[in-house]
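Pilot study result, target chain (491 residues):
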Amino acid sequence: RKLDAELSLSRCSNFSFAVGVYSLLKILARDRMHLANKDPTTWLTGQLFQKALIQYTTDRGLEVEDVHLAVHGNAAQQYASTIYRACVSYRSRGKTESIKLIVKLVASKVNSLADELTFDTELKVYRDYLSKMETMLGDDVKACKFGPKLIYSADDPVPHLILEDLASQQFVHSCKLLDVDDSKIVLIKLAQFHATSYSLTNTSAANSLDALNNGLFKQKPSEGVKFMLENFTLFAEVLSQWDGYAKYAERLKCIQPTFMERGAAIYRGRGFGFHVLNHGDFHYNNMLFKLDQDRRVEDTVFYDFQLSCWTTPAVDLLYFLYFICNRKTRDSQRHALIQLYHQEFTRTLDTVGYMGKVPTLLDINCDLQRAGFLEVVLAICFVPFLFADYNQTLNVYGNEEEARAYRRALYNGSQFKEILHTILVLRVREKSLPKRDRFLRATQQTAQVGIGRILEKAQRYEKSGKHHPIVALAQHLHLYVEQGRYPLGVL
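Predicted structure:
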């Protein structure tokens, strides 16, 4: 039963799914007796929940009357670790109440055995940062909810977190990529999350923010990153057989010796414009959604902060583009979405009274250009599993030729080929360009959005019959747009 539960848990993300079964089989075979000796049902008792709720409510007279504990498939898919759902009845201050909780037994997503950084990172985000960041947004109830509240944490007998169960607040899980309108709701919340963390650099918490460095790429290679490198190498072999793609395959082969170093540099934030607290594993299975009566997204919250790190916002933004947005949204709205992110980022900084330097839209576009390697990695290593048949997922694991053949089939899928063509042209080819040309490309993307806004505003003035200098400017800019040129000096 435990194996069935763990296999279900590994489905929560493309990355976790790809590594989870392979690692879990090793754990269960090696440590079956060890796990049996730590059966959670032997210590997840009323006594533990009473201790947790006394600490949370500050009511020393609180008494737990009943605990209903269960492993729930949906909760498992949502929280990406061994999960128990608990309904606790208790008596506090003369009243009988009940509370629904999630008990998360922390397990590393990138190693076969959990490491202390995984637990420390997630605990620190819940305990030290989310509450501070939410408080900064004041009375805006919808905006200030970034994730579930931490009720209790301990590392004995195994590291575990007790969180509020947001299912009781009508938050549900989703298992699909989102269209443009729903994606914007998620993006706005992400911008608020990033902006409030960025503003913490002016507070006393600034010195401890750098400690959150448990990102996907770490200095010590994990099983997960090694699995990614194996997929990256395999894809380069497949790509060399595509007609007209030999030069791209050769470029990918040249990248392989520095694969780890390139990824680690991005997650350390080296050479980037500014840093924020990144979720680090930002995809639709690591968030909950509140839907309206038409099943449209009204609000969202995040969880599963095991890979959170302090680095460029480009990390979460690239995850957003590929694992939140559907393809149509990403291809047609990419620049507009990045502009929306910047607008909400700066608005949030203004709301919290931030007085320091505010990153520009150009800063964000430049960081996305500098993180181009990560975009290629996400597309090659994770996107193919969006098209996988999960009834055959066990074929993905190991080094057997049958598993390699299955992955080759995923890489040769028509939809994946179309996605990769765009990325290879934009990212792999541009890495051969001088840095000045790459900077100008980022500047051009920023200018393109800015000019579009000018033309839209001018059109509204023309329709209303009002005179405004922007109309003349728009007529001047229109000539450049028709020629595909963008006068950077004007902006």
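One observation from the pilot: The first strand starts at residue 63 and ends at 70. A full batch analysis is planned for the follow-on phase.
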